[in-house]
Structures are given as C-alpha cells and as structure tokens.
Amino acid sequence: MNILAKPVNFLKEVRSELSKVAWSTKRELLASTVLVITVTVIMTAFIGIVDLGLSRFLSVVFK
Length: 63
Known about the structure:
With 63 residues, this protein is mainly alpha-helical.
C-alpha cells in the first residue's frame, strides 16, 4: 500500500461512518442547548447558595 492510499482509505471510511450517524434536527439541538444552559444556571445558583450558607455557618462556629 503506498503512502497516499492509507489516508485516502481512512477518509473514505470516515465519510461512510458519518453517513450512518443520526444527526439531531435544529429544533432538537436548540432544545438540548436550552436545557443544558438552564440546568447549569440552576446548579450554579444552588452551589453558590450552599457555599454561602456553609461559609457563614463556619465563620460563626470558628469565631
């Protein structure tokens, strides 16, 4: 096999495999993105509130 045959064969196989992928629709992608951002904001707020509460609690305990 010559030096160019392997990369060409690899790219052909990649193209073949990518044609088998079930790609998300634009609507599904948007819904997933909104969900991820929403969950991230909720978790950030929750962790921030817990951190603030624990910080204040520990500062009172160790004062």
